Amino acid sequence: MPQEKVVQVLNDLAVNVVMLEPGDLSGLGQLLNSIEELRKPELSSGLEYLLPCAERLQDAIVTIIHDEFKESEKSLELLSRLITEMQEALRNGADSCGVPDLQVSGKSVAEIDQLVSVPVSLGETVVLESADPKVKSEPVSEDQSHSIDEELFAGVDFSQDEELYRGFIAESNEHLDTIEENILNLEQDPENLEILNSIFRPFHTIKGVSGFMNLKQMNVIAHHLENLLDDARNQRFYLDGDAADLILDGVDFLKRMLEQLNIALGGGALERMPVKSFLDRINDLHQVLLAAENPAKPSPDDGIAQTVPKIGEILVGDGKITSGDLEIALAEQGASVAEPEKTPKKIGKILVEQKKTDIKAVARAIRKQQQKKEGAAGSSIKVDTEKLDNLVDMVGELVIVQAMLHQDPDISSLESRKIAENMAQLSRITSSLQKVAMSLRMVPIKQTFGKMVRLVRDLAKKTEKEIDLVMFGEDTEIDKNMVDLIYDPMVHMIRNSADHGIEAPDERCIVGKNRVGTITLKAFHGGGNVIIEIVDDGRGLDAKKIRKKAIEKGMINENDHSSDQELFNMILAPGFSTADKITDVSGRGVGMDVVKKAIEKLRGVVEVDSTPGQGSVVTIKVPLTLAIIDGMVVVVGDERYIIPTLNVVESLRPLEEQYHTVQGQGELIKVRDHLLPLVRLHQVFKCESQTTDPCQALVVVVEHESEQFCLLVDELVGKQEIVIKSLGERLKDLPGIAGGAIMGDGRVGLILDVAGLSKCRP
Amino acid sequence: MEEQDTLAEVALTSGNENKYLTFHLVDELYGLDILKVREIVGMQEVTKVPGVEEYLVGVINLRGKVIPVADLRKRFALPLRDYDARTCIVVVEIAGEAGPVVMGVVVDAVDAVLTLRDDQIEKVPAFSSKVSRDCIKGLGKVEEKIVILLDVDQVCSAGRVMEDHLAEISEDGVK
Hints:
The complex is a heterodimer. Chain A is α+β, with helices and mostly antiparallel strands. Chain A is 51% helix and 15% strand. Chain A has 28 helices and 18 strands. In chain A, strand 14 and strand 15 form a beta hairpin. The longest helix of chain A is centred in the first third of the chain and has 27 residues. About 9% of the residues of chain A have low confidence. Chain B is an alpha+beta fold. Chain B has one domain: CATH 2.40.50.180. Chain B contains four helices and eleven strands; from the N terminus they run H-E-E-E-E-E-H-E-E-E-E-E-E-H-H. The longest helix of chain B is centred in the C-terminal third of the chain and has 14 residues. The interface between A and B is medium-sized, with 30 and 26 residues.
């Protein structure tokens, strides 16, 4: 008997409501579950008149959970009254077997509605007399009930649980990045449920957590996007084109909200965000998508951002088949697609049938393709960077102590084989430990490359071009700090390639190129550096135009015989733009010198090369890490100092005729016909030096921003790789000192700041 | 100055106990709040850093971290002498603008850890010792000994030295 069951559930509800304390979230959750049960068709059949009331109850509880009710005591009282009325109605219904009188509850409902203050959206179901039990309020309208366009985060107390909010920001940003990446994957493969799920889940998490944290607007947006995705998951439509754009916009929107939240945490002023209009956009598109019947399968290859290589391409790349073979096989595949009855044959199968390759090679290719899709899904944990730094410091110390032990005359005088063996073992372990410790900070550059996919996609749309982005060496590792710093320069360069490099599709056709332009991103290690190449197959740079512009700007004169190569690199100079028109993407000539500056700050180099009509190559070369530099160790007095090798030009012991003093100019050293000012380090640092006569000591010629000068030092010890250490807050901004380094004997050496010293010149 | 006095008064009325690390400097016994002390390391070679206050004698390598070291004799303008086997560096954690800062303090020799009730601590008398009054939290009395309790945050804080020197000069002038 369903009715008995309903009575029981209602009784339970009544008891639970009475027991409920204000603010007891789990209790409210239980209530929700009970009501959910009540609304199941098998229970409510014949008792449909209870449904609207139950729905009311549910809405009310949801609102309480969202803390819309200001007076919790009162709201709980209302809840219990509502339940009592339902119980009564049920009893009356059972007694009279007629239409139960729910008029009384109508009053409570109105009261609740007043409290919830959402008369409109619930209006459809509010009329109890004519309530149609089948009308389920769309989840969409339910959440709009919040006054969305109010100020962001109104009524949220950030002073409490600040850490919780910060954690939420970090976590959500990560989720959003995942979503972004997967949306782009989905565009390649719109039917892949696995990818859809991996977009759905993070939205779900954000929705849940933001709801819990009382961030209503975020919650609503995430919720709506989740609904959209849910329908896509149920294959009611495909997410492509507009929908993917919308979700990407949604991701951006949520990211902006997170930024706002961050500002709010810092007590800053917030900007208003058009939450309502964005919601409308989602809903509109959702309706449009639902309305479109029999969803057409979008072609997976929309001309943009091909990230997963095809089987055929992999086989060709592996040298298993020739591209001619592939074309024949593709033609056959095309023919088989034409027969509607059959499913198209897989390319691998055709190739095997044609005996072009064996099944093993195909299997290997498929595995390779899968790997590309999934990426290396190694498990990872998050570690505080401070802990990591501590570990690296400790390992550094261990290496020093190990070296000291190794060189200790007492130990080496012990002629024990055992000790010798153990010492060797110790040094092996420490050196591999050091390698591991250093590698902990390294992350694959994939993360940065992944962001470029989105960028190229957007740029292609904006400039109405068709651009493929091909990436190689995403697993190349680079220092975590570096990853963030290299992002902006790369964006600049890719923008340039997309905007100026790649031609419009029609133009490309005319010159006989593929309609679709290709930008290739490559990363690899070379000579202790990470080298990143951005290659486009666009129109290339026009050396003549650059020469003209350079002459105009007075950078070279008419008779200059700079090579093309040199000319190309002039585009990196400030204010240099060869673009005829300025677009909103690039072209103001500020981009390139910013890139150059940024890369130089990372102690790296940028080079540009180009072949007219075939495209250009931008090569960015940066060190693997910012923590280690090559340094020249010098001695002044009792102390050792390190000059970054990057700044060192040469060192010499000047002859007497090279040494000059000029009135008002101080001391000068003549090096290769150039008179360079001399900076006496012992004077700058006010310490005793072994010799004060430059002709007895050594001078090191250093360079800062193409200005050269000489440093007077006592001795040159040698070149060494050193780990840069900060001197701490107490000793920051010292003139001429950039930091400290632990030397081989465990003592501290100071790293010279050549830029700072150049100001000490007399 | 007033704030210091009220603090001392509050301390007098309550009967709390605190622990102090005591150490020798010239002929006097000094104390540091034990909660500020991280560890004690032997004297080691210090790398001089140019362009800093005189009393900051340089930096050392504390297990991979570079920390500045202050010489208390120099800080309080006491007679200097060579470091010996008993000289050590007390590593303290002081309050900086952006969180705690780890620093080393060179002392002649560490003595013991002393527990002092608040009623054993007297506020600084009006006449000043050689050490400027800002840096002294109070005077602890145990049996016949007197321990000068230092406020290590003040001792090591940046930009204080000039003031202290001026104070000393003017005091000397008064004398």
